[in-house]
């Protein structure tokens, strides 16, 4: 029987003391990194979605619905400007933005019908 040399004994001790850094550790770190990336991407998506929806709803649809509401209410609504012309923080502004969404949807259907998609 051959006696093990000191290098192989040291390698066995090192391997035994570093079992934590084996395949289990790599799998665990992979899961941790995956969870971190997923959380970061989910947060980034929510932030971009929030900004995009606010820009669309508070700006684009508000000013698309504003002339329609002014025309149908004979200038009574929406009333004066609260904050530099922005009324979207009020119920009135939300309704004007909703009318803008409706105007956009009707215009999109009319365009699709004209082009021949519908």
What is the structure about, briefly put?
The protein is mainly α and 118 residues long.
Fold blueprint:
Elements: H1 6-17, H2 23-72, H3 91-115
Describe the structure.
With 118 residues, the protein is mostly helical. The protein contains 3 helices and no strands. The chain is 74% helix and 0% strand. It has one domain.
Helix segment tally: 3
Reported for the largest beta sheet, the result is: none
Mean pLDDT over the full residue set: 77
Distance between the termini: 87 Å
Quaternary assembly: single chain
Series of H and E elements:
HHH
C-alpha Rg, in Å? 31 Å
Helix content: over 70%
Give the beta-strand count: 0
The backbone outline, from C-alpha atoms, is: elongated
Low-confidence stretches: none
The fraction of residues assigned to DSSP E strands is: under 5%
Q: What structural category characterises the helix and strand content?
A: mainly alpha
| Count of the separate structural domains | 1
């Amino acid at each position: 029987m051959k006696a093990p040399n000191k290098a192989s004994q040291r390698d066995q001790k090192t391997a035994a003391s570093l079992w934590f850094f084996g395949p289990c550790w790599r799998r665990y770190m992979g899961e941790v990194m995956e969870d971190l990336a997923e959380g970061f991407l989910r947060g980034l998506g929510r932030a971009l979605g929030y900004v995009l929806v606010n820009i669309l709803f508070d700006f684009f649809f508000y000013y698309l619905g504003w002339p329609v509401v002014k025309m149908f209410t004979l200038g009574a609504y929406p009333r004066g400007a609260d904050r530099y012309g922005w009324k979207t923080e009020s119920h009135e502004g939300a309704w004007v933005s909703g009318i803008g969404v409706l105007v956009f949807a009707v215009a999109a259907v009319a365009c699709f019908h004209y082009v021949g998609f519908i």
